[in-house]
Amino acid sequence: MAVRRILQADEIVVRQKAKKVRDFGPSLKALVDDMVETMRAAPGIGLAAPQIGVPLRVIVVELPQGEKEEQERGKLFVICNPKVVKSWGEEEGDEGCLSLPGYVGEVKRASRVTVKGQDLKGKEIRVKAQSLLARALQHEIDHLNGMLFTARLESIDKLRRLEKAEEEAELAI
């Protein structure tokens, strides 16, 4: 396992659509191990493979222990080829991004989602999520489509630079 460099928003791979995972072998497991270590070291709550320069449809999400959503707290979600198949409601909330450090923006997202994908062995999985987990899954799936959260801002006025103390306390998706 290794902590990899997180690409910044202006780098090409972050802005391109990722390719479908077809090989569910040891190299995928090694990639996911690196993604989890990188996400935790950042620190963040989610990471998409393109953010570390790998153009594959793989995401990892892990809510911090202190989150209210008890059943998802501290649970690691690894999803290959994820797709939102159902969504409900709408809520606006702050989002940050490991590829755009020091900034947060108010983004509207579905408040609940069902995401379909595959696990590390290629077996189909479904994840039903709400609140922060739903937001994080949608954010990471956007990365797989070459989209940053800034593209979902209603206005550039909804983006703000964090003060240094805020930045250190903020967990990015």
Brief descriptors of the model:
single chain; 173 residues; alpha+beta; Peptide Deformylase; five-stranded antiparallel β-sheet; three-stranded antiparallel β-sheet; 3 helices; 21% helix; globular
Largest sheet: 5 strands, antiparallel
Query: Which structural class do you get from the secondary structure elements?
Result: alpha+beta
Number of domains: 1
Overall 3D geometry? globular
Please list the strands of the largest sheet in the order they lie side by side.
1-2-3-6-7
CATH architecture: Alpha-Beta Complex
The CATH topology? Peptide Deformylase
Distance between the termini: 21 Å
Uncertain spans: none
Q: What's the CATH H-level homologous superfamily?
A: Peptide deformylase
Percent of residues in helical segments? Answer: 10-25%
Q: Which CATH class applies here? A: Alpha Beta
Mean pLDDT rating: 92
H and E string: HEEEEEEEHEH
Task: Give an account of the 3D structure.
It is a single chain. By secondary structure, the protein is an alpha+beta fold. It has a single domain (about 10-170), classed as Alpha-Beta Complex (Peptide Deformylase), CATH 3.90.45.10. Helix content is about 20%, strand content about 30%. The strands form two sheets. The chain has a five-stranded antiparallel beta sheet with strand order 1-2-3-6-7, with helices on both faces. A three-stranded antiparallel beta sheet has the order 4-5-8. Strand 4 and strand 5 form a beta hairpin.
What is the secondary structure topology, with strand pairs?
Elements: H1 26-41, E1 46-48, E2 58-62, E3 76-88, E4 91-96, E5 103-109, E6 112-118, E7 124-130, H2 131-144, E8 159-161, H3 164-169
Antiparallel strand pairs: 1-2, 2-3, 3-6, 4-5, 5-8, 6-7
